[in-house]
Specification:
The chain is an alpha/beta fold. It is built from eleven helices and nine strands. The chain has two domains: 178 residues, 3-Layer(aba) Sandwich (Rossmann fold), CATH 3.40.50; 61 residues, no CATH class. Strands 1-3-2-4-5-8-9 form a seven-stranded mixed β-sheet, sandwiched between helices. Strands 6-7 form a two-stranded antiparallel ribbon. The radius of gyration is 18 Å and the shape is globular.
Length: 258
Amino acid sequence: MALELHATDSEGEGTPLVVIHGLLGSADNWRSHIKQWQKERRVIAVDLRNHGRSPHAEGMRYAQMAEDVLSVLDRLGIQRCHLLGHSMGGKVAITLARDNPDRVVSLTVADIAPVRYGHGHDTIFAALRHVEASAPSNRREVDGLLAEYIDERPIRLFLATNLQRDANDVMRWRVGLDEIEQAYEDIRAEPDGEQPYEGPSLVIRGARSDYVTDEALEATQKILPHVDVVTLEAGHWLHAEQPEAFQDAVADFLSRVE
């Protein structure tokens, strides 16, 4: 059964663009991009289950998460959309497009391939649990606790977007950390779906990221046979590192599709 996800919705004309964040992200991470895209079209950004303002629930198979997003489209009366997903959200988008190609005009996948990945988040999970156990009262304390595990400040700032203050004035994670860790094997896995997505698709990858290697592109082309590839001088969070180039790549692709 699909969950009722939280989603932001902007007014606009034409075919809507639906944006799906990655692991430990949220719709809030896309606000600056949405401001630009909504000048041209309606933009919907969802919070996946166990993320952002959406409910927490067991189970994070890609078929389940794609069903959640499809339920958002039904609720908003969207019959067809352009679909964009980053990282884990890209796998959700691929699954939705494969299983419901009649609902997807085009597919944009940001820095992820339809393959199983290794255990890349163990240190991040340990850092999040360390913060949880320490019950910090402000963001400076949180950053110090995260820094014991994570050197890169941009990653710490990204994780901190998941903070909220509880009734006792303690900083807590709003993500469903228990559910995410329990489902991590499914998150690492390939997207669901049996058939290739035959519609127009775009993969935007980071030159300094190891998520979409040339070998991984071969697997991508089997599932997305009509894929274009754009490489940006960035890491995995390429939409944050190269926002203008990322927006240009998406806008150029959507204009060609339409």
